[in-house]
Amino acid sequence: MMRRPFIAGNWKLHNSVRDSVALALAIAEGVKPGEVDVVIAPVFTSLAMVASSLNDAPHIALAGQDVHWEDKGAFTGEVSAPLLRDVGCRYVIVGHSERRQFFGETNDVVRRKVDAAFRGGLTPIACVGETLEEREAGKTLEVVLGQLDAISKDLAQLDQIVIAYEPVWAIGTGRVAKPEDAQAVHAAIRERLAVHAGAEKAAAIRVLYGGSVKADNAKGLFSQADIDGALVGGASLDATSFLAIIESAR
Ligand code: PGA
After folding, report:
1. CB within 6 Å of ligand 1 — which residues?
2. What's this model's pTM, rounded to 2 decimal places?
3. Helix (H) or strand (E) holding 21
């Protein structure tokens, strides 16, 4: 099964509109069209300007970093899937560990956001991952597969989802998972996806790794059988390093 590599840059809470546009254009200029799906996720306030400056770069797609579970209403401060579509997004990150950790998102909330994304015509990039404490207690698979079950159960569009496995202890710490250790979790994720979606569909779902992915460790990760790309934080804020990661995925 050939899965098209997928590299997403999560810019988190960084970059003014001007800096976002400059970074997006630098990435657009360096990416060769084809072979790799490239996605960037700027802050909400930069999305509209980035979308219009990328007009001539259909080979780069936009993602929101989060989405509310309702389409509209009295939800001060939130952004909905239809509004993300409206501004030019095709994807949205849901269930990032920072959302789970700092904003109290439960598996149930994450699932509602996955449903909202699909309902609004967006492809969710749904994140799962264990904390250091959970890993050390031998609970990695229990936690990760529990999160995955909440996302996947009775989800009609499961075959279209993108999953990101991001061990929390590897995010922003410079401590990347060993490629074989990441692969073991990715293989377990794909096995569980097969339970929910059937083996054929599970074999087509992209499962990304995230957590301190850099130009110099990307190749080792991407050479693993079930690692189909990356969700990149810090290294996506610099065009040269992000482009080098994209190149490693080819
Ligand atoms: P990092 O972040 O690459 O800076 O570790 C990854 C992520 O949070 O998606």
Report:
1. 10, 166, 171-172, 210-213, 231-235
2. 0.97
3. helix 17-30
